[in-house]
Amino acid sequence: MSKTTAPTDPTGEQELAEAGSQLSTAPDESAPQLPALGVVGWARWFWRQLTSMRVALLLLLLLALAAIPGSLIPQTGTDATKVAAFRSAHTTLGPVYERLGLFHVYSSVWFSAIYILLFVSLIGCIVPRTWQFVGQVRSRPPGAPRRLTRLPAYTTWRTEASPEQVREAALALLNKRRFRAHTAGDAVAAEKGYLREIGNLAFHVALIVLLVAFGWGQLFKSEGNKLVVEGDGFSNTLTQYDDFKSGSLFTSDDLVPFSFHLDKFTGTYEMTGPNRGTARTFQAALTYSEGAYGKDKKTIVKVNHPLEIGDAKVYLTAHGYAPVMTVRDGKGDVVYRDAVPLLPLDNNVTSTGVVKVMDGYRNARGVTEQLGIKAFFYPTFGGAGTEAGSRFPALLNPLLNLEPYHGDLGVDSGIPQSVYQLDKTHMKDFKDAKGLQVRGNLKPGETLTLPGGAGSVTYEGTRQWANFQVVQEPGGGWALAGALTAIFGLAASLFIQRRRVWVRAVPGDDGVTVVEMAGLGRSESAKVPEELGDLAGLLYERAPGAPEPDPDPAVSPDPDPHVVPAEGAEQQ
Amino acid sequence: MTLAAATNEHLANISNTLIYSAMAVYTLAFFAYILEWLFGSRSKVGRTAAALTADARGAKAPAVTVRRNGGTAVLERPEVVVRSAAGARDVPDGPGAHGGDEQGDLYGRIAVSLTVLAFAVELAGVIARAASVERAPWGNMYEFNITFSTVAVGVYLALLTLRKNVRWLGLFLTTTVLLDLGLAVTVLYTASDQLVPALHSYWLYIHVSTAIFCGAVFYVGAVATILYLFKDGYETKLAGGGTPGRFANSVLDRLPSAASLDKFSYRVNAAVFPLWTFTIIAGAIWAGDAWGRYWGWDPKETWSFITWVAYAGYLHARATAGWKGRKAAYLALIAFGCWLFNYYGVNIFVSGKHSYAGV
Ligand code: HEM
């Protein structure tokens, strides 16, 4: 027998490279070449660069880097008041940040540029890789390299079975183990783990789906807030909102039609222990109807449990108290009766706000005036002489503190005014007999009488209010589907190894068949030799070993001194 | 009600005692690991040097040998021969901290036993804490810290149980666990308290538990990466004919080879990356339910994203750009740095929606 080595490839490196070729669809990274002249040449060069792995990696890292400032500098999207505070505190830095888009990093030009480039690169990468993969699936695993001994995992033995029998058994075995196998010449070539590639491609495609869905959601998004007092309702039209934000492609026709009525708000709190006052439950009982004339349905909205109607979700975001007040004028006529929502100031829901009586009120002399009454509310008042502030968030000992003013509220001046603040420029306080300003601390049912027959204010009782945020963000389902696909694709890509196995069976000098098996994985892994061992063990049962011949010193040693293959291997 | 509160306080005290006891046992384990390293230094194996200098001299050590049974014997089963990729240094793994020294090995075993004990005590402490607050023990940073170190040690012990060669991690792990617990009981301690309603969700269990687990595994990966950098420097120096200092010689020689450390840290990081992806998605779903948007660039969200992108960059670098070895290792460390900043930095320096009771 002759031990020939191909003269053109003495080390077998090239052949080895072929054996491992196309074991992935990852492109080769070659050094950047200078572009050919001309626009087309440059365009092609630019495209190559953009879709190269080096640039993809660079863009990926750049994206991480670019996301950092937005987490450290206040953002208009999350907290506009903080941005305003930052601006007034940093008069030189503020405008610079503004110009750089640092107050809205995630919608800034440069941030968008990075991720758009990244995704163009991604698409430019996926398309050719997919074609390549389809080609790989349609062709067959490459035939066995001549010198299997050079592969990372190798085994050999001699058997009485004929080479054809061995190859047939090997083919059957590999097929049964779900390898794609075929016989090429004197060897069986097999490959497994294509799911790895599918997973990897699916992961990258899923990233695109995720981004498109997210972008779509941002463009068509809408988000509004509405404060509703117990017993009141809301219907989903633009005019009913207290404030409203929307994406650039949103139109008011996109609002899902529905309405609801707040039946009751319930808040319970820890009564004892170190966490006295910590909220245990917040929930709002609603009656709602879908569409313009839907049937009434009842539901409970809690934190973490929004009400979902079509694309819209209704969240419970805040709550507070709304004392019901009756204001009478000098003649005793009721000029105002309403629940006035007050804004909480602290965790114990000490609240503040203003009652504005715009019209209908006449003072003791019968002159038309406006009333503004500053209100402080303590759901649990600590008792006289204690430091201001409620002691507990629930209505245990409610007390309403009122500070009435009369005059002109200034609401007609055209300057928008907060309903929770009182502009006192044209208002005067009420003085009592001693010349002190009139103030009143009222319990439910009590009345503060205004001096000089100017009327009275009665605290009738307390209702609660809840703030609802109504959000519509289409594309959430797609984003979720993309995200889940990404996880599974990633898992397949990282946990499945794509590998090849070759089984060669040739007759040796003495007529005994020599079997050689070798395995190759995309990356070095302990699994490849392990699996090869298993396969060899199974094949060995079908083609049991024959006794070894006496060592024959006449046989020239293998040019590769590290491995001694069984006699007669490497033939042909 | 008061009775329940009293039981809770009692349980909280038990938990504190257990955590302190666990610290004491970890300290003992720490000293046992030190002794393992000390006794191990008696044996001067110099395997790495031997392997590398043999290489340098050009007399390539045989990569593989096939043992032949006697002349006419029939093989039980064919033997698989493994060879490493061309160009790789063929450095054998070090023997571990004990360096083959019997007494060293004994102390190593004692150290592992003590680690198991400390782990059990700490786990009991975490469970007592959970019972005292009647919820998952992940409401504030104190609780994160005690859970985090428990899980990190759990991961280490699980790897040991799977017969992975990781005992060398013990000393580094106990050192940092002690630091973590020290920080927890001194700076971060928060009396047990209830959660705000936003945290009342089963997503808390899903999202936070996976986040802590991923962090623990990333941490193990990061330790291996740092050791890889040292060992790789050491091997490079030896291969270049340099003579590393005595301390480096003694310590680094006993660690697994740079190639093994690199592979280990890659596997660890790659294995949890899908889970980290899931953690972020679970967080997004929860945010969708709790805050009305699934992604809002809140600082915590942003830093999870940055961490994710950094780890993705690391995996990408290894899979495609051919950034193996040191460059990839630096990326992995940066990624872990992002994770750490997200965990500590964001809670302490940045305010956002994720800030809850007592840091
Ligand atoms: C959008 C950001 C991207 C992320 C988060 C990402 C993430 C990943 C991850 C985690 C892997 C590792 C999976 C593995 O080891 O098998 C990977 C592999 C890969 N990615 Fe990306 N990638 C991104 C963009 C890109 C782009 C722009 C390209 C092309 C220019 C690309 C091409 C590849 C290739 C070729 C592989 C390796 C496939 C293989 O090993 O067979 N990726 N990617």
UniProtKB/TrEMBL annotation, chain A:
One of its GO terms (biological process) is cytochrome complex assembly. Residues 53-532 form the ResB-like domain. Keywords: Cytochrome c-type biogenesis, Membrane, Transmembrane, Transmembrane helix. Residues 1-30, 537-572 are annotated as: Disordered. The keyword Aminoacyl-tRNA synthetase does not apply. It is a multi-pass membrane protein. GO terms for cellular component: membrane. It is found in: Membrane. The chain crosses the membrane at residues 55-73, 109-131, 201-220, 477-496. It holds the Pfam family ResB. InterPro entries: Cyt_c_bgen_Ccs1/CcsB/ResB, ResB-like_domain. Residues 546-558 have a biased composition (Pro residues). This is Cytochrome c biogenesis protein ResB.
TrEMBL record, chain B:
It comes from the Bacteria. The keyword Transmembrane applies. Pfam families: Cytochrom_C_asm. GO terms for cellular component: plasma membrane. InterPro entries: Cyt_c_assembly, Cyt_c_biogenesis_CcsA, Cyt_c_biogenesis_CcsA/CcmC. GO terms for biological process: cytochrome complex assembly. It is found in: Membrane. One of its GO terms (molecular function) is heme binding. Residues 138-351 form the Cytochrome c assembly protein domain. The chain crosses the membrane at residues 18-39, 110-132, 144-162, 169-190, 202-230, 264-287, 302-321, 328-346. The keyword Aminoacyl-tRNA synthetase does not apply. It is a multi-pass membrane protein. Keywords: Cytochrome c-type biogenesis, Membrane, Transmembrane, Transmembrane helix. This is C-type cytochrome biogenesis protein CcsB. It comes from Streptomyces galbus. The lineage of its organism: Bacteria, Bacillati, Actinomycetota, Actinomycetes, Kitasatosporales.
